[in-house]
């Protein structure tokens, strides 16, 4: 239950962060505009590799599989790509945070194992409190440039 709660908290923070810092439609940040154009190219392409929106007659050479995985859900749910992109960013933010929390939780649990081979029985609260800082650090250290 703690992991689901952490996901919801991180997702809510990601949505608040995305809505406060930018909108893709306004084109404030060029990096997001380029990512959205690649995302649209993957969604509109009839064959792969998808066309390159920045190079007429060219193709996106590599690094488009993440757009394909995200685009699958967008196509299945019938979402508008710009709206979906603004939901994909916080979803990935939350998924990575939960993954790092899980890694920290399991490393702390493995460290708490008794030396005689018995299974560890540490308190769940202790594990959660020790595994939460790496998750928070990993999520906010890479995005701190947007606060400046």
Task: Describe this entry's structure for a reader.
The protein has 148 residues and is an all-alpha fold. The protein has one domain. The protein is 66% helix and 0% strand. It has helices at 2-21, 30-44, 65-77, 81-111, 124-141. The model has no long low-confidence stretch (mean pLDDT 77).
Uncertain segments are none
Average the pLDDT over all residues and give the rounded result.
77
The biggest beta sheet, please?
none
Described by the principal axes of the CA atoms, the overall outline is: elongated
Number of strands: 0
Tell me what portion of residues adopts beta-strand conformation. Answer: under 5%
Q: Which structural class do you get from the secondary structure elements?
A: mainly alpha
Proportion of residues in helical segments = 55-70%
Task: Give the termini separation.
Answer: 34 Å
Measured on Cα atoms, how large is the radius of gyration?
20 Å
Number of helices: 5
The sequence of SSEs as H and E is HHHHH
Q: How many structural domains are formed by the residues?
A: 1
């Amino acid at each position: 239950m703690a992991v689901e709660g952490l996901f919801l908290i991180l997702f809510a923070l990601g949505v608040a962060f995305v809505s406060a810092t930018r909108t893709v439609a306004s084109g404030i940040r060029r990096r997001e505009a380029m990512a959205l154009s690649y995302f649209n190219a993957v969604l509109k392409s009839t064959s792969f590799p998808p066309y390159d929106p920045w190079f007429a007659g060219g193709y996106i050479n590599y690094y488009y599989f993440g757009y394909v995985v995200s685009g699958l859900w967008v196509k299945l749910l019938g979402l508008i790509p710009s709206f979906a992109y603004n939901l994909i960013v916080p979803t990935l933010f939350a998924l990575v945070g939960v993954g790092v929390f899980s890694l920290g939780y399991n490393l702390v649990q493995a460290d708490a194992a008794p030396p005689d081979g018995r299974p560890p029985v540490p308190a769940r609260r202790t594990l959660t409190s020790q595994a939460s800082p790496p998750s928070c650090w990993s999520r906010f250290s890479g995005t701190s440039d947007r606060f400046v």
